[in-house]
TrEMBL record, chains A, C, E:
Record family assignment: Belongs to the GcdB/MmdB/OadB family.
One GO term (biological process): sodium ion transport
Organism: Bisbaumannia pacifica
Keyword Transmembrane applies: yes
One of the record's GO cellular component terms: plasma membrane
Biological classification of the source: Bacteria, Pseudomonadati, Pseudomonadota, Gammaproteobacteria, Oceanospirillales
Gene: oadB
Membrane topology qualifier: Multi-pass membrane protein
The keyword Ribosomal protein belongs to this UniProt entry's keyword annotation: no
Role this protein plays: Catalyzes the decarboxylation of oxaloacetate coupled to Na(+) translocation.
EC number: 7.2.4.2
Predominant location: membrane
Protein name: Oxaloacetate decarboxylase beta chain
A family per Pfam: OAD_beta
Cofactor: Na(+)
Catalysed transformations (reactions): oxaloacetate + 2 Na(+)(in) + H(+) = pyruvate + 2 Na(+)(out) + CO2
UniProtKB/TrEMBL annotation, chains B, D, F:
Name of the coding gene: oadG
Function: Catalyzes the decarboxylation of oxaloacetate coupled to Na(+) translocation.
Protein name listed in UniProt: Probable oxaloacetate decarboxylase gamma chain
Membrane topology term: Single-pass membrane protein
A single MF term (Gene Ontology): sodium ion transmembrane transporter activity
Species for this entry: Bisbaumannia pacifica
Length: 439, 80, 439, 80, 439, 80
């Protein structure tokens, strides 16, 4: 009978909190969007599933051994923890003890005391949750987003950009979405609506870069507590690019501008493609060392692709390796979808700011294209400006589609790939600036 | 940090950040253009060689299409 | 001359113990079974090879830096170790010192002292053995069995089970083998024949689940000291399923029962297959959080397989990733085949209990099928009950083969796949219960 | 722990464990059956569409078999 | 304005040292050799790129958190570090403080103080650089070279060696290059030209083994500070084998000897190929346990290849796994190409000794073949002796090519594969001896 | 360590090392030869079975060559 009660007290149903129910429903919703609506399924399937796993009551899959002990251990263990953490537990309300210990553990506890407390937690039989381990290895170390960026580099063709380097300006302009969103987050805080620090505002802004791995990398450094919401927003809005962008594109351009035909791209030699990642790398080394991990791995992937002598490495970077890392990255992001962190008004703010970021980035890209068109002799269709937000290759396809509506013989896809990949570089540079000032 | 301070910090970061992105990408435009010119001078761009390779045999292309489909089905069947 | 002697004193031949010879022969035997008899070669080749590596004298491939130092370091280093481990070394017999230190290091030495002693061992030039590192990363963390379970999920088709959900009862019944074996281990201890703790008995019982990764996962938590013997028993008996099951199946069924034809399975829709892993996940979350890592990863793999939008992830989970993890899992299990742990009378007990577990599970599955047949209108061939032990897909093939002997037109394979995959779920649930009570 | 205690613990664990496995899988049978019904109502099971696809061309199947073998040999040869 | 200055003071251009410029140029040169000249591109592309990344000023990609803090942190942080490291900082020259701290951190600081100092560095916002992390996981642990050796084993066909086991003597003789080079390094030190310790001399000698992973493995144990130069030398000279060997081969053989025809190799049965890696493993276990990690993994890979029952594991070891590990191994080696370590006169010494090592190994192999020819009745073409340095399969191709010049109907390729793979075993044995005495 | 000491150490290591490599590989030659003999006695080397398999159909070989090329091109195209 005793044991039956243990089973019941340890069951999910008995311990289920409302927050966990909501988060599990959100996880299922993400899976629905990923599977049925095809919203970036490669990331949102693992993220959604990881989110469900992270909210299974009592399982503690997303918790460290210490947090797990604080959350469920017997009072005697809590007292031991309090002793080594040099915290005093007032009263006899065990739940209050847990709150006190949790606060102490997450508010600047010196590392040697964390180690000692973790020793006690492990000695009492608690261990790091599976998702917590994935998060530590994949994201906290910074490795997984970088390896994915390497794979993205190995899948990127810089040919269209090299044929028309001016499109880099479009990729630069679209990053205005990032900084406008940062100001939005700061403004909401100044108005007292939300409460974001500058670091958090910067991490939120990067959503406007429309680059999953960059967003995850930056927020793992500047605001890990918001990583879940930021990653979900980044990937969800990337999937919504075909809905968000066209109205803005039509509003800012005339029918005649949309019908502008662009001259065919010149052929780009193999050697140019090999040298380009090295040129980019050297510029990064000279002017923005803080972007070196992101852009370095990106350039490395691209060099492997183009150099033609390491095909087996390039293949692996584009397939087995990026797939393996994607699985664990997704589950790790999911581990940040725990109710206590995700179900805050800040998440709504992030979601709202995220869509604004995409919209502003789109608009800035188009306006910059119109400006280039005004000052340059070679005609440029302003629709390719929106591709500067990156979201490769979706945004370029949107440019192409909206262009075909205005002029059924005008194929903009290859032209839009230039700003599209420029946008990847642009947001990595913006990320580097953020990390330099705030990291 | 006071709210006005935060706003100022945000504005400063926006200005610097956006400026830096433009400066950096402008440098990249310049460097890329120069690089392309140097490369073009060193190794003149080869004539597009497609015409030589493509029309080798039209049949080949058709066979390839059939093969591609077959290989694709073969793979799908054997994958699981 | 001095150096020549060093070489000789450090050679394997000089230091070879009888136990190591026996274990190397056992490793070769496992390789023979795996290669020549095709006994689960994917696991037994790495396990057998790892077992040989682990028993190479002086190489210490399976030892931590500390154990390695304790085993071979100079007396001065041993005295340093004793000082930080707060142990006193009596007498002048260096071998006795080693025994004392080994005992202290493995009997609840506080973690900070372990760290300090390890510092000394590393400072004296010793490092963690290769297999020890593999074991730490792959098994002690719990990750490798879980990733393999994800891959197994990605390879599992729940169609036959969904077409006939009653077969889940067969998968439940066959788990009786697990608990009966647990009682067997407990009984042998009560009789004084063996000396198993309850945790060890539970880990041994899981052999009856006929699921390699589940066995390894459970024993890494409940009884790591028995992991080698348990894994070898689990995989060896899985390979022996075609020998162990048929006599039991024939003994418990009549010719007429064995000839029962089953109606064709209904087609199962894609959507059912997508939703099923989520239903299972939610039930696990509500009722048995302790099975969440195992069944969560299993369901995740299956969802990737069925959802149809992440084929590249599913492919990788079924191929590159599971293969990589299998190599390291196998070698890591091999690291537990060191003579001092494996060559104990307990190993014989485990081997004996393992075959009993399979036999009882088989019998329970068949009897449950006969029961279902008695109470249900839809006929069910009792031979598919034996497939409930899992050992996918071997047990289902055995059901089919024995069925064909009785009725050459009756193909039971697809029908037996239902209980077969149900058995995987069943043993993971049993594993969760064990971990809940004893973990 | 005395031996009888161990035996009792073992018996208790066997009872609880086996019981729980059955309860859980019974719940799963119920949930699965319900789920299948709901799914079937929402999305009626499609007719088996095999007949439409399969007999497209018998030749194709034969070609595919030849191709499969060829591809297989090709792969084996090039693997090592 | 303040921020603009920060950006400028933190830019690469402002902080660029001459050494870093030189190293970046060397990195570009390695890429040129790898891509244009096809010098072992699979390794030299990642190594060259990693070398550039490691020398990006201010980025600290190759540094630990502690080194990074010592190099760039504010004076207040330096004082904290000095306190826990128990070092006194004299004067007020901050650069001198950094030198003092760097010296203390790298000269036998007790591990507990390293931990405490690292805690402070991390608390001040510094973290382990990306390449530093890759190095720790891939090379410092010893795992990456071993996994690559496993893959090499899975790609090696011992058939030619088994058909003609005498060729093992050629593989043995060619290792004289290793030991002669060791003596060369010792001699240069005795002459006062260079300053190598015995450990360093041994690590340099292994270059003569012409085996990348063996070189990296040995120098990661015996002389990690030279690893960058040694790995670059090893791979560069391997690529130069077609230039280095032919003159030596022609000088040491007569036209008549080069034209010797060898009898066709007998067919080797599958079983022999399966048993051979086990025979080798047992010999290693009995006589040289220190070579067990290297040769154990090599034999394991080969057994997976030959046993025929684990094709999926063998495939993965030869493809996805070895490719993944190669990427990270290459980048990790690159992390050792930091200016302060690489730009020393010792590197020139290593480069010079490396080419000597190859030359002596080649000569020793050929002379041994001539000796065998003199004492044996079965004719042996001395040109296959040079293949004993390994550098698989390049050296065997060189033997074949030089042989064809002398006798256009004499194909030596398969005959040269015997000594070629024997050389792999030989250098691993030599590596084991080095580690045994000096490790 | 004095320089002469270092030289002596180096010489000793060279002697021991080279000697050990030879002794070990000699043992391996012996063991391999013995192993081959034992294996040959246990399992007599099978006749080369190539003749049975190879000439099955010459056409096949040609088809295979075409297929290989096609598959190769298919793969290259679809890889990126
Ligand atoms: Na972007
Ligand atoms: Na089972
Ligand atoms: Na060699």
């Amino acid at each position: 009978m005793d044991k039956l009660l243990t089973l019941w007290y340890g069951s999910g149903l008995y311990n289920l909190g409302l927050g966990q129910v909501v988060m599990i429903v959100i996880g299922l919703l993400l899976l629905y969007l990923a599977i049925h609506k095809k919203f970036e399924p490669l990331l949102l399937v693992p993220i959604g599933f990881g989110g469900i796993l992270a909210n299974i009551p009592e399982a503690g899959l997303a918790l460290s051994a210490l947090d797990q002990a604080i959350e469920v251990a017997r009072p005697a263990v809590l007292q031991e923890l309090a002793a080594v953490m040099q915290v005093s537990l007032a009263g006899s309300d065990v739940e209050a003890w847990r709150t006190t210990l949790y606060g102490a553990a997450h508010d600047g506890l010196p590392p040697e005391l964390v180690r000692a407390a973790t020793d006690i937690a492990k000695g009492a039989g608690y261990s790091n949750g599976m998702l917590y381990q994935f998060y530590s290895v994949a994201i906290a170390s910074g490795v997984a987003p970088l390896v994915i960026f390497m794979g993205v580099g190995a899948m990127t063709d810089f040919g269209p950009l090299l044929a028309n380097p001016r499109t880099l300006f479009l990729g630069a302009a679209a990053q205005f979405g990032i900084f406008a969103t940062l100001m939005g987050a700061v403004g909401l805080t100044a108005l007292g609506v939300m409460d974001f620090s500058l670091n958090q505002a910067a991490a939120i802004g990067i959503i406007g870069g429309a680059d999953g791995p960059t967003s995850i990398y930056v927020s793992s450094i500047l605001a890990p507590e918001l990583l879940g919401a930021i990653a979900v927003a980044a990937y969800a809005y990337m999937a919504l690019v075909p809905l968000i962008q066209p109205p803005i594109m039509r509003a800012l351009t005339s029918e005649k501008e949309r019908a502008i035909a662009m001259s065919q791209l010149r052929p780009v030699s193999k050697l140019e493609k090999i040298v380009f990642p090295l040129v980019l790398l050297v510029l990064v080394a000279l002017f923005l060392p803080d972007a070196a991990p992101l852009l370095g791995m990106f350039c490395f992937g691209n060099l492997m692709r183009e150099c033609g002598v390491v095909e087996r490495l390039s293949d692996t970077a584009q397939n087995a390796l990026i797939n393996i890392v994607t699985i664990f990255l997704g589950l790790s992001v999911g581990s940040k979808l725990v109710a206590s962190q995700f179900l805050a008004v800040e998440t709504l703010g992030i979601m709202g700011l995220g869509v604004v970021a995409f919209a502003i980035g789109t608009a800035a890209g188009i306006l910059m294209a119109k400006l280039l068109n005004a000052v340059s002799k070679v005609p440029i269709n302003p629709l390719i400006g929106s591709a500067g937000v990156s979201a490769v290759p979706m945004a370029a396809r949107v440019s192409n589609k909206v262009g075909l509506e205005a002029n059924p013989h005008n194929f903009l896809l290859m032209h839009a790939m230039g700003p599209n990949v420029a946008g990847v570089i642009g947001s990595a540079v913006a990320a580097g600036v953020m990390i330099k000032y705030l990291g | 940090m006071l709210d006005t301070e935060l706003l100022q910090e945000g504005l400063a970061l926006m200005g610097f950040g956006m400026g830096f992105v433009f400066v950096f990408l402008t440098l990249l435009v310049i460097a890329t253009t120069l690089m392309s010119r140097v490369v073009d001078r060193l190794v003149p761009a080869p004539e597009p060689k497609a015409p030589a390779a493509a029309p080798a045999r039209q049949d080949d292309e058709e066979l390839l299409a059939v093969l591609s489909a077959a290989v694709h089905r073969y793979r799908q069947r054997h994958r699981r």
